[in-house]
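Q: How would the C-alpha cells look for this protein?
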Amino acid sequence: MKAKYQSVLDLGQKLNIQDGDVKEENGKLIVNGTAKNQYEKNLIWDEIKNIGGDNPEDIIADIKVADTSIYATHTVEKGETLGKIAKHYYGKPMKYVAIFEANKDILKNPDVIHPGQELVIPNL
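A: Here is the predicted structure in C-alpha cell form.
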C-alpha cells in the first residue's frame, strides 16, 4: 500500500508535514499529520485523489492544519503578478484584490510587487 501512495508520502516530506505518521492496518494505509496551511492540506488531498480517485477506500488520511487563519503564504518570484498568484491559488486572476487587501502592510500598489516578498494568501 505504501508503494501505491509513495508520491503522497514524498509530497508530505517535501511540504514538511509535522507529526507525520504512516501505517498499514487491515489493507488500508493510515496517514496522519499537520500541514502548515489549508493550501498544503489540499495539495496532499489532491495527490491522494490523483492516485485513488475521488473516494479512495484503501487510504485513511487525517491531515490537520496548523494555521487556519490564512489559506497559504507565497514568496513572490520574478515575473509574477498578483493576478498570476491569484489564478494559482484560487483559479481566478481577479481575486488578486483579496491578496492585495491582505497584504496592504507591505504593498502600496497592486501592480507593484517584488521578488522575495512574502505574501499572505487569505481564506476566501
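The first helix runs from residue 6 to 14.

The first strand starts at residue 18 and ends at 25.

Upvote if useful.
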